[in-house]
Structures are given as structure tokens and as C-alpha cells.
Amino acid sequence: MMGIKNGARMQRVFALVLAVGLTSTAASADVWVTGSICTEANAASGNVFNYNAGFATNPAAGAVFASCPIPTDQNLGTTHTFEVRVEDNSAQDFLSFIGLVIGTNGEILSSSASGATSGTGELTMSFSATTAVGSDDYSYVVLGSVPGSSSQIENLHIF
Q: How far apart, in whole angstroms, are the C-alpha atoms of residue 36 and residue 103?
């Protein structure tokens, strides 16, 4: 019986050490999420995205305006850099993408300049926003126009 009790205690200690280690590495201020969290911004027409392998894909012929939250509970400092990786399968480009930093009361604290792509294939947009102070309570969202022909948002990155 004593061996089982000590084994269980050792498992709890190991789990605690592992959890502390994971918590400290999570503070790296580097968050990636897939496009599957994106939703169509125009609620009246419903969600037209397909989610193929976790990517938000627009199967329509025309562009769709999307809203993509980036969940995090980390303090990223005062400069918030957004990166969006996309697959452009359309003659249109990804246009008017902006990053927003949202405060605890839902207010927009800062917005980035507009980002866009040019051409087709796998592309990356980067843009940044600045706030007066950093906080782990901020929320982040990327807004923009996703072209048609099965173009997709592959993943979002905030750092």
C-alpha cells in the first residue's frame, strides 16, 4: 500500500512541475490560432465559410467580410503585431485587413493600418497596433475581406 501512495504522490508532484513548466513557457507572448475561429461579419446572410482542415474557406464567387478573434490571456506589451496567413485562389486580393486591440470594457484601444495581399497562392499579411500600456486582459481581432473562389484564412498570429 505504501508504494501505491508514494507513486500517487509522485504523479501529483510531476503533474504540478509539468503544469508550472507549461505555464511559464506560455508566457512567451506568441499566439497562433487557425482560421476556423473566423466568422462572416455580415450576420444577415449567415455564415458562408467552409471549415476544411481548420481553415476558414470562402466557397462563394464574391468576397466576404470576416471577423477573426485571436484568443489570448498574455501580456503582449505595447506593440501588438498581427500576422495572417492566407491562400488566395481568386483574381481579387485579400483587402482591408486590420488588427484591433480591444480593452476590458469592449472599447477599441488601438487599430492597425490596413493590410492587403497581392497575387495568388499562399501569402502573409503583417500589420501592427500600439497601445499606451500592455495588459493580459486585452482582446485581439482581425477584420478583413476574404476573396471568393475558395480562398481561405489559414492561420492568425499575434505577437
A: 23
Domains annotated for the chain, with CATH where assigned, are 29-158 (2.60.120)
Beta strand segments in 1-148, E: 31-34, 39-40, 50-52, 55-58, 64-70, 79-88, 95-102, 108-111, 121-130, 139-146
Is residue 140 within 8 Å of 157, Cβ to Cβ? no
> How does residue 54 score in pLDDT terms, banded at 50, 70 and 90?
confident
Mean pLDDT score of the chain? 81
For the cut 90, the answer to whether the pLDDT of residue 4 exceeds it is no
Proportion of the chain in helix, strand, coil states, percent, rounded to 5: 20, 45, 35
